[in-house]
């Protein structure tokens, strides 16, 4: 594999990990709004990270796969534009909720935000899943059957699995469940949906890779077990174990897909920037990524640090 492709995969895995954490928090807002104060404390820094790293991933993808811009523009312009419009609702209503003093309206705005980000996630994942399966795509004419590419068994099954994985991650990271049986049940369902989606979509290429490169599936399962163990016995390490598990799981799925897109009908390498430019793109990407990561780690640490007035800090003081 080209180093520049692996680097792009890593950026995507980081971005999607953060994005799934936001989706999981949005789901928790809809499921249990009474924990809104706790959810918002975590949601604000994650919300900022998603936007920044999302832009960085798009810029790096444009530099890495410049010839992919034309087919993507032809194929996915409708779902991308629709996701962009709904993304405005995501940003606007989250902002409104931050400054509104009326608690009733705040609840409405946050629910609009939560529903918006779930719709954006569904459309964005549908585009990504379409590049994996090729369902509804005609590469010879660069045309797309939008409804078929979105409303098919593979896409819906995989998205449900991804949403459950997001919910599992947030239940552990942010301690939203005192009984470990619930996150166990959710992550088992998630894995069943994700693996079943390959069979539902009849993706023989990925199924073959899954068996021949079984370690790419085994490693995430082992890490999930470790995350559950840290939650049960070493809870303070869970906030590190779970994001690493998400990152490795997403990266493993990307590596299963390599080297072909659209169910192995189009090679990643055929879309690459010219060989002479690759070292420069990789160097700029690494430097830019390190700078962004440095500031985002500071932001995340500030957002997730336990302030003196937080319920967790009060509990700790009382125990002392």
TrEMBL record:
Its main location: membrane. It is a multi-pass membrane protein. Keywords: Cell membrane, Membrane, Transmembrane, Transmembrane helix. Signal peptide: none annotated. The chain crosses the membrane at residues 6-30, 65-89, 110-129, 149-168, 180-202, 214-233, 240-260, 280-300. Pfam families: Cyt_bd_oxida_II. It comes from the Archaea. It is found in: Cell membrane. This is Cytochrome d ubiquinol oxidase subunit II. It comes from Candidatus Mancarchaeum acidiphilum.
């Amino acid at each position: 594999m080209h180093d520049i492709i692996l680097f792009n995969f890593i950026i995507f895995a980081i971005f999607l990990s953060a994005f799934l954490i936001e989706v999981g928090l949005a789901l928790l807002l809809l499921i249990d709004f009474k924990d809104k104060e706790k959810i918002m404390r975590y949601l604000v820094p994650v919300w900022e990270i998603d936007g920044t790293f999302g832009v960085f991933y798009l810029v790096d993808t444009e530099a890495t796969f410049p010839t992919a811009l034309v087919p993507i523009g032809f194929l996915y312009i409708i779902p991308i534009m629709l996701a962009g419009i709904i993304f405005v609702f995501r940003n606007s209503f989250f902002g409104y909720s931050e400054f509104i003093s009326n608690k009733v309206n705040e609840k409405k705005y946050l629910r609009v935000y939560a529903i918006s980000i779930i719709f954006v996630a569904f459309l964005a994942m549908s585009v990504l899943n379409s590049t994996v399966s090729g369902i509804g795509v005609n590469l010879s004419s660069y045309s797309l059957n939008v409804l078929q590419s979105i409303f098919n068994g593979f896409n819906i099954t995989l998205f449900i699995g991804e949403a459950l994985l997001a919910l599992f991650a947030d239940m552990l990271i942010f301690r939203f469940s005192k009984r470990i049986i619930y996150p166990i049940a959710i992550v088992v369902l998630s894995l069943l949906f994700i693996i079943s989606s390959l069979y539902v979509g009849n993706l023989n290429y990925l199924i073959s890779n899954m068996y021949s490169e079984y370690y790419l599936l085994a490693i995430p399962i082992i890490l999930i077990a470790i995350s559950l163990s840290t939650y049960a016995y070493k809870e303070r390490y869970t906030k590190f174990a779970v994001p690493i598990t998400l990152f490795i799981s997403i990266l493993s799925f990307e590596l299963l897909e390599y080297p072909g897109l659209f169910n192995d009908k189009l090679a990643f390498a055929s879309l690459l920037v010219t060989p002479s430019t690759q070292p420069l793109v990789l160097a700029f990407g690494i430097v830019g990524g390190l700078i962004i990561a440095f500031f985002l780690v500071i932001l995340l640490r500030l957002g997730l640090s336990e302030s003196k007035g937080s319920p967790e800090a009060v509990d700790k003081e009382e125990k002392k």
